[in-house]
């Protein structure tokens, strides 16, 4: 990804640096060749009268780190039933959709993303296209085809249909096959391995949210093999037992972390494993599901998941754990482009402060994506990945949902989206 050439001064802004301090007024941020060289009071900023310096005057604008979508599925596309994921479109078309979703996420202020699982091996090549400036999109931490036990949540086609699932999921029986699946992903070039330790409200009959879809031995084999090859492991974890198994097996992150008892919470906090609840998805399913003929048993399961997940998220934050925000967008009732609804939801429904929510969506997100040495906070020496908003999210977080209010979305110091591009 190219770096901006030259010097830019963002002057007189409201600035939220993502490090834990509150937003401050009358601030300035300088960057040169894509690297931040000053963050602080506008009154004490170094002079910058060198020729060619770009000066952006920002009264009433808010400058913050670019957002991180920590559970991004660029290859999911208005999925309204599970079969949409495996047989609706060929890999060629899914790849084009993924490129469009990546562009949209960047336009929505998400300068980074950690994938939550990919169809085929598209993420790896999407990341390359973004890094090589072929297309625009978030700085991507790639995932691969997902690993699930045979008969588990992601194995829904009975054998008589003769549908291969190999573009979506690697189905395993036992630790040996778990190891073989990870080795396949190592060759694919992924950074993350996504697994399915548990079921979900979406499958109330045989794989509901209290069902296990992998054994501890399988999960442990995944972690040992992945860590040996320097890959990280995460998993779809709803049932308490599955969360506990993931923590004991050495998972690097938990997706959802829905139903947690005291023992599981203590284990999570002791190991400081981040959790990405992707929780607005549950509310969207409850509110919008009926219009997509979602069965009542599924909606009831989503309600139980919403209640359990909300309680867990509140506890994790209160007790000093780490939460990343990303929303499983790409379903018909929770489409791409709505990413920042997760932020409004965490403020207005879960009860996080705007500052806490934005730190989860920037600093913690970059820690999960493994890019916190480069982005995620506005500090000296970091890359200028910024979002400049025409308004004040600390007055109303919902402005984050309205990309027409984004003055600029900046990666490596280069303005990639926002209305200033066209004015
Ligand atoms: Zn997901």
Explain the layout of strands and helices.
Layout: E1 7-15, E2 24-32, E3 35-41, E4 54-57, E5 61-65, E6 67-72, H1 83-87, H2 91-107, E7 110-115, H3 122-131, E8 139-141, E9 146-149, E10 169-172, H4 174-188, E11 192-195, H5 216-228, E12 232-237, H6 240-249, E13 254-256, H7 262-271, E14 275-276, H8 280-288, H9 296-318, H10 341-350, H11 354-369, E15 386-390, E16 406-411, E17 414-417
Parallel strand pairs: 1-4, 1-5, 6-7, 7-8, 9-10, 11-12, 12-13, 13-14
Antiparallel strand pairs: 1-2, 2-3, 5-15, 15-16, 16-17
Describe this structure in words.
The protein is of the alpha/beta class. The protein has eleven helices and 17 strands. Helix 4 packs parallel to helix 5. Bound molecules: zinc ion (ZN). Zinc ion binds at residues 71, 73, 116-117, 328.
CATH architecture of the largest domain: Alpha-Beta Barrel
List how many beta strands DSSP finds.
Answer: 17
Helix content: 25-40%
CATH topology of the largest domain: TIM Barrel
The number of helical segments is 11
Order of helices and strands: EEEEEEHHEHEEEHEHEHEHEHHHHEEE
Q: Please give the largest β-sheet.
A: 8 strands, mixed
Distance between the termini: 25 Å
Tell the overall outline.
globular
Question: How would you classify the helix and strand content by structural class?
Answer: alpha/beta
Unreliable sequence segments: none
Ligands bound here? zinc ion
CATH class of the largest domain: Alpha Beta
**How large is the share of residues in beta strands?**
15-25%
The whole-angstrom Rg is 21 Å
CATH superfamily of the largest domain: Metal-dependent hydrolases
- The average pLDDT value, as a whole number, equals 96
Structural domains: how many: 2
């Amino acid at each position: 990804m190219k770096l901006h050439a030259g010097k830019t001064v963002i002057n007189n802004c409201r600035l939220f640096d993502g490090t834990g301090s509150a937003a401050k007024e009358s601030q300035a941020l300088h960057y040169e060749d894509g690297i931040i060289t000053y963050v602080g009071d506008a009154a004490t900023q170094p002079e910058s009268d060198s020729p060619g310096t770009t000066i952006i005057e920002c009264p009433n604008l808010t400058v913050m780190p670019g957002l991180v979508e920590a559970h991004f599925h660029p290859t999911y596309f208005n999925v309204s039933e599970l079969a949409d994921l495996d047989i609706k479109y060929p890999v060629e078309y899914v790849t084009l959709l993924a490129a469009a979703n990546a562009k949209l996420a960047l336009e929505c202020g998400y300068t980074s993303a950690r994938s939550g699982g990919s169809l085929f091996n598209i993420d790896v090549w999407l990341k390359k296209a973004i890094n090589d400036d072929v297309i625009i999109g978030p700085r991507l931490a790639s995932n691969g085809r997902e690993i699930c036990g045979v008969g588990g949540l992601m194995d829904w086609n009975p054998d008589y249909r003769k549908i291969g699932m190999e573009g979506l999921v690697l189905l395993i029986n036992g630790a040996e096959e778990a190891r073989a699946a990870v080795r396949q992903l190592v060759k694919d070039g992924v950074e993350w391995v996504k697994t399915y330790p548990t079921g979900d409200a979406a499958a109330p009959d045989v794989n509901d949210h209290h069902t296990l879809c992998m054994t501890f031995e399988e999960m442990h084999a995944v972690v040992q093999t992945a860590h040996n090859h320097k890959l990280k492991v995460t998993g779809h974890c709803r049932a308490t037992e599955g969360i506990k198994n993931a923590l004991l097996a050495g998972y690097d992150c938990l997706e959802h972390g829905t139903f947690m008892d005291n023992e599981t919470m203590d284990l999570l906090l002791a190991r400081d494993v981040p959790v990405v609840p992707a929780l607005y998805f549950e509310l969207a399913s409850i509110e919008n599901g009926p219009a997509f003929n979602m069965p009542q048993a599924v909606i009831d399961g989503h309600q139980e998941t919403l209640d359990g997940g909300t309680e867990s998220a509140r506890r994790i934050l209160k007790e000093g754990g780490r939460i990343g925000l990303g929303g499983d967008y790409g379903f018909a009732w929770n489409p791409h482009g709505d990413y920042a609804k997760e932020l409004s939801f965490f403020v207005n429904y879960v009860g996080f402060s705007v500052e806490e929510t934005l730190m989860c969506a920037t600093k913690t997100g970059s820690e999960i994506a493994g890019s916190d040495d480069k982005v995620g906070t506005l500090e000296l020496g970091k890359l200028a990945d910024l979002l400049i908003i025409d308004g004040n999210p600390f007055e109303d977080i919902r402005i984050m949902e309205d990309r027409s209010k984004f003055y600029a979305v900046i990666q490596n110091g280069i303005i990639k989206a926002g209305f200033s591009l066209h004015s």
